[in-house]
Amino acid sequence: MDRAELTTEQVLKRDIPWEHYMSTKLISGTCLQLLRRYDHKPESQRAPLLEEDGPAYVRVFLNILRSISKEETVEYVLALIDEMLATNPKRAALFYDQSLSGEDIYEPFLRLLWKGNWFVQEKSCKILTDIISARPKLQNGMLPNGDSSNSKSKLTSTHDVLRGLVDWICSQLRNPTHPSCSVPTAIHCLSTLLREPYVRTLFVQADGIKLLIPLISPASTQQSIQLLYETCLCIWILSFYDAAVDYLSTTRVMPRLVEVVKGSTKEKVVRVVAMSFRNLLAKGAFAAQMIDLGLPQIVQNLKAQAWTDEDLLDALNQLEVGLKDNLKKLSSFDKYKQQVLLGHLDWSPMHKDPSFWRENINNFEENDFQILRVLMTIIDTSSDTTALAVACYDLSQFLQYHPSGRIVVADLKAKGRVMKLMNHENAEVRKNALLCVQRLFLGAKYASFLQV
Q1: Closest by alpha carbon to 213, among 192, 188, 187, 195?
Q2: Residues 85, 91: contact at Cβ < 8 Å?
Q3: 136 dihedral zone (left: phi>0; alpha: psi -120 to 50; beta)
Q4: CA diameter of the chain
Q5: Inter-axis angle of helices 182-193 and 158-174, nearest 10
Q6: Each residue's pLDDT tens digit, 194-221
Q7: What is the DSSP string of 41-95?
Q8: How many angstroms separate the CA atoms of 105 and 124, rounded?
Q9: How high is the mean pLDDT of the chain?
Q10: Rounded CA gap, 309 and 270, in Å?
Q11: 139 forms bridges with which residues in the sheet?
C-alpha cells in the first residue's frame, strides 16, 4: 500500500517483532515487558497502565524511535503515541514528568518531521504540537527540556521545536507533500501553535500569512468547512498581533472574509470571522474597507438570524456600534482611497462632485502620488469596464484640479497607457479615455471647458 494513504487503524493492526528487537539488544527486557502488557490491548486496559506507569511508557516509545529505524516500527510507535494522546489529550503532560528530565523528548519527532514518509511526518507534527502545547511554562526558573537563559544543555529547546514546526507547516502550505492531507494537517496544527507569541513572530517572518489568504473562501463539504474554520481561527489569533495586522492590511483578506461571512451558515465559522472583524475594526484602514465592502448591512442581516452563540452575538453587537461610529468619522477621501486601493471603482457620487476634488486634490500627493499609481495599475490590468472608465475619469479630474497635474501624470507615462483604451470595445471606457487624453494635452487652464 502507498504509505501516503496509510491510516492509524491499519498501522495498529501490525504485529511488531518486539522479541527480536530484544534479542538484538535494540530494546531492553523491561521495555519488552511493558510493551507486552500494552500492545494490542483495548483502551480499558491501557488507561490504568498509563495512569500507573505513563512516564515509563513514554520513555519506551522515545527509545524505540531513537534506536530502531525500520519504517513499519516507526509508524507503529507514532500511531501508538497519537492514539494515546487523541484518546486523552491530558496525557501529553506525561512527557514532562520529572523522571524524564534528562530525556530529549522532542528530538525524535523533530527529526522524523523532515525525514519520514507522509504518515510519519503527519503523526510527528501532530504529536509535537500536542506535547509542546502542553508543556509547563516555567519550573523553578527552568523551562522544560533544558530551556533556560544560562543552560548549556544539548537537549532540543522549545524554540528549536517551534521554529521547526513553523518551517514544516509553511513548506506544506507552499508545496504539499500529500495532495489532500498536507494543508488540513498544517492548518490544524498551526491553529493550535499560534497561541504561542513566539510562533506568531516566526510565522510572520516566514511570510506565512500570504499562504493563508487563498484558503479563505466559502466552503460546502464538511472537510472544507473545518479547514475554513481553522484558517479563520488562525486569522483571528493573528489579529491580536500588530506585526501580523500590518501584514494583513496589505492583503485581500477583508474581501475574502466578507464573502465567507455572507455565504456561511456554520455558526462557528461566522463567529470566528465576526470576532476577527471586531479586532481589526480599530486598526489601520480596516474600518474603511469594511464599510466599502458593505459590512454594516451584512452585520444587520446576520443579527436578524437565530444564532445561539453568545460570543457571536456580542461580536455582532460591538461591530454594529463600531461601524456606525467609523461611518461618521470617515471622510469622503478615506472612502475614495479605499475604493481605489481595493480596485472596487464604481460611479459613486464623489467622482463627479467638484467640491470633492477641490477639497481633496492635495491629498492625492500622499505617499508619492500612491492613488494615481494605483489608478494607472487599474488602467493597465483591469478587465472591469466600469473600473476602467472611472479610473480614466478620475485621472482626468486630477488633471483638471491639480496645478501640476500634467507634469505629474506625464511622469507616470500615462498618455500611451490611456490612449490604448481609446480603442476599447466599451463605449464608456472609450469616452472617458478620450476625455483624459484631451485634458492631458490641454492642461488645467482649459480642461474645465471639456465636459463629459
Answers
A1: 187
A2: yes
A3: beta
A4: 99
A5: 140
A6: 999 999 999 999 999 999 999 999 988 8
A7: --HHHHHHHHHHHHHHHHHHHHHHHHH---HHHHHHHHHHHHHHHHH-GGGGGGG
A8: 12
A9: 90
A10: 10
A11: 142
